[in-house]
Design brief:
With 125 residues, the chain is mainly beta. The chain is built from one helix and 13 strands; from the N terminus they run E-E-E-E-E-E-E-E-E-E-E-E-E-H.
Length: 125
């Protein structure tokens, strides 16, 4: 599953991933989840990049916690320039243990679709 350039707003949970199918969420905005914006369980290991998390009760939950593989979630904005709270030391949206959130963006980091295409082409060359 690949989700890009999307907006998730005011749901209980925005994305719940179960099992080990590959998943990528990029360049998306996840706002005001009343429970959790992204949950990964039972071996799910999504790759999160260039996403904005703002106003969520919990931004990312890794059900495996610190004992399992970390969810890669670098280059995301956590709603505060000093990064996420919870497992992080910032004031932004909280993340659970088992989320690799560094480095993070100090402000919105959504790329345009065109910039995303250029980045993909650079990786291929």
């Amino acid at each position: 599953m690949i989700v890009g350039h999307s907006v998730f707003e005011s749901n209980v949970r925005h994305v719940r991933l179960v099992g080990n199918a590959p998943a990528r969420i990029h360049d998306s905005v996840l706002l005001f989840a009343s429970d959790v914006a992204v949950t990964a369980a039972e071996g799910a290991l999504p790759r999160l990049e260039y996403d904005d998390f703002v106003g969520n009760l919990l931004a990312v939950r890794n059900r495996a916690g610190a004992s399992g593989p970390a969810i890669p979630a670098s280059n995301c904005f956590w709603g505060s320039e000093d990064g996420p709270s919870g497992a992080g030391r910032g004031k932004g949206d909280p993340v659970s243990d088992g989320v690799d959130f560094a480095p993070w963006c100090r402000q919105s980091c959504i790329r345009t679709a065109r910039a995303d295409e250029r980045d993909a082409q650079r990786r291929v060359e």
